[in-house]
Amino acid sequence: MSTTLAKPAEMIDRKWYVIDAAGKPLGRVAAKAAVLLRGKNKVTFTRNVDCGDHVIILNCDQAVLTGKKMEQKFHRTHSRYIGGLKEIQYKTLMAENSDKAMTYAVKGMIPDNTLGAKALTRLHCCKAEEHNHAAQKPEAVEI
Predict the structure, then answer these.
(1) Is it the case that residue 126 has pLDDT exceeding 80?
(2) 8, 36, 59, 106: least buried by Cβ within 10 Å?
């Protein structure tokens, strides 16, 4: 049995998908977005070729965190200097920058290499229902 491998020149046409995160868990929305960004839903998926699509996530403000994650979960960054740890509670992060919280969740689910960095440029998170990518005619994705 032979394996078909996609070439980078074959992956030129990319689709646009829109995901509505209203009332849905943050992690499930991020997992679905990560699959679409990588292109793992395609038959021609090749792990070393960038074959993903564009993803628009709407209503990030209305995404939910289950359990006690709003109080117990923190986003931590470190400046690599002594005492440079900064942490922000997810209750504050979701209230002020819910699109950043969604981006952090998706970033954790894609590989930490050049393919993952390129995939993150195709992610568009919006706090509300409106987005400025209507000309691309995105398809709605159900979770």
Answers:
(1) yes
(2) 8
Q: Is residue 3 part of a domain?
A: no
When the pLDDT of each residue in the chain is averaged and rounded to a whole number, the result is: 94
CB contact at 8 A, 63 and 127: no
Burial class (CB in 10 A: 0-12, 13-18, 19+), 114: exposed
Global confidence as pTM: 0.93
Which token pair is 109? Answer: 């689910």
Q: Kindly report the CATH number assigned to the domain that includes residue 69.
A: 3.90.1180.10
Residue indicated by tokens 């690599």: 80
Q: Which of 83, 133, 76, 85 is nearest to 108 (CA)?
A: 76
Residue 37 inside a domain? The answer is: yes
Beta-bridge partner residues of 140: 18
Residue 6 forms part of a structural domain: no
